[in-house]
Amino acid sequence: DGASINANTGSVAFDRTVYPVPYGAVSGTQFLEHATAGTSALAQGDVVVHVRVTDADYNVSAQGEDTITDANVTLNIERGSAVQFLATIGNTNANINSGLNGIVEVSPDSGVFEYDQTVTYTSGPSTDCPSVFSGGCILQGDIITVEYTDNNDASGKTQTVTDSATFDLRNGVLQ
Fold first, then answer.
1. How confident is the model at residue 48 (pLDDT cuts 50, 70, 90)?
2. What value does the mean pLDDT take over residues 120-144?
3. Spatial contact of 92 and 101, defined as CB atoms under 8 Å apart
4. 19: part of which helix (H) or strand (E)?
5. What does the alpha-carbon distance between residue 25 and residue 93 come to, in Å, rounded to a whole number?
């Protein structure tokens, strides 16, 4: 009888290629907000992006849900040459957000791991933002990128894979 030992190359993907532009209130003025939304914090239109990492190397428990804790998944928002760091997940390194450690497997023995990241209207770069913003903003055409560093790909080496999506404003349709 024989057995082989091998590694798999992981992949990363967003659940969509286009996300709506997040909206909310800025300094008491409504910015791209629905007319009926009001001014409370609950009225904000945050966007949740779903990041999915597929890597069979981390599927080590046949009956339980596994967690990726030693590989980096980094999210950034880009506008031209400006880049705004959003989050790093899946690494227990003390230099990163300690509340974002680990990407959990979606079901036992699947090798598919998922993480949800909330993006607010102020999550983007500060370049070209309207003057009412004190920090960054998300504008139509901004790009969100995810980068997954697979510590052991199919050849046993480190490899980085990426995916991206855009933020876009869409018109409603009445039928």
1. very high
2. 87
3. yes
4. strand 18-20
5. 35
Q: Please write the tens of the pLDDT for every residue from 61-118.
A: 878 888 888 778 899 999 999 999 988 876 654 433 344 567 888 988 888 999 899 9
CA distance 52 to 55: 10
Q: Which helix (H) or strand (E) holds 166?
A: strand 159-168
| CB burial string 23-62: b at 16+ within 10 A, e below | bbbbeeeeebbeeeeeeeeeebeebebebbbbbebbbeee
Q: Could you give the CA distance from residue 99 to residue 38 in angstroms, rounded to a whole number?
A: 31
Q: 78-88 in b/e burial notation, b at 16+ Cβ within 10 A?
A: bbeeeebebbb
Q: Which residue has the tokens 């052991």?
A: 152
DSSP output for 76-130: EEEETTEEEEEEEEEE--TTS-GGG--EEESSTT--EEEEEEEE-TT-S-STT--
- How confident is the model over 2-30, as pLDDT tens digits? 776 777 888 999 999 999 998 876 555 44
